[in-house]
């Protein structure tokens, strides 16, 4: 059995394909039998690190959550870590990244700022729709939100709720990890359609509220 130090080194590398993920999962499941708390701390630390520094590839950790903790517990854990890590990224961007972001993506920032300004009255619903159907990458929303003046409470709540359907689908697939052939199996047409439907439902109250205000 691998030592805790070796496991930590493996997690720092992060799996980049399905075969690496399956190999790591087998090792962690074996280690988890004797040291469940260590595996839990290791998993949470790796997830928060990835989210805080906006490192792509959280899909592999969502799959791992399903393999280690099952669908229900894995989804709750992944969603909580997503919101916490995104909030840490929010504060990191607020403290250190404003000038870099504004200078690196001026056009994207202008476009997103205009969207946020136009949806101030229904901001939570707008942010939920962005999370549910990620036209803009989640990491970009995380690093730009503090610059756009989005309140941290609204940001964290919409990150938690908005990414839960995606987390659920990945975690559920991770619970039967051995049956997956490719990560692309997750990103199929049915999944995209489901996310679009959920986004539409989430955006409906804000849309109706805006229409009612115009009529009054």
Largest sheet: none
How many domains is the backbone divided into?
Answer: 1
Helical content (DSSP H or I, runs of 4+): over 70%
- DSSP, total strands: 0
Quickly count the helices.
11
Low-confidence region ranges: none
Radius of gyration: 19 Å
Listing every helix as H and every strand as E from the N terminus to the C terminus, the arrangement reads: HHHHHHHHHHH
Principal-axes shape call: elongated
**How many angstroms does the end-to-end distance come to?**
68 Å
Average pLDDT for all residues: 81
Domain VTT: 55-175
Membrane topology: Multi-pass membrane protein
Family: Belongs to the TMEM41 family.
Transmembrane segments: 37-65, 77-102, 148-169, 189-208
Structure, explained:
It is found in: Membrane. Helix content is 77%, strand content 0%. By secondary structure, the protein is mainly alpha-helical. The chain has one domain. α1 packs parallel to α3. It is elongated, with a radius of gyration of 19 Å.
What is the secondary structure topology, with strand pairs?
Layout (H helix, E strand, L loop, with lengths): L3 H10 L4 H15 L3 H17 L5 H12 L1 H34 L1 H13 L4 H10 L5 H7 L7 H11 L1 H11 L14 H27 L1
Helix pairs in contact: 1-3, 2-4, 3-5, 4-5, 4-10, 5-8, 5-9, 5-10, 7-9, 7-11
Subcellular location: Membrane
Protein name: VTT domain-containing protein
Main location: membrane
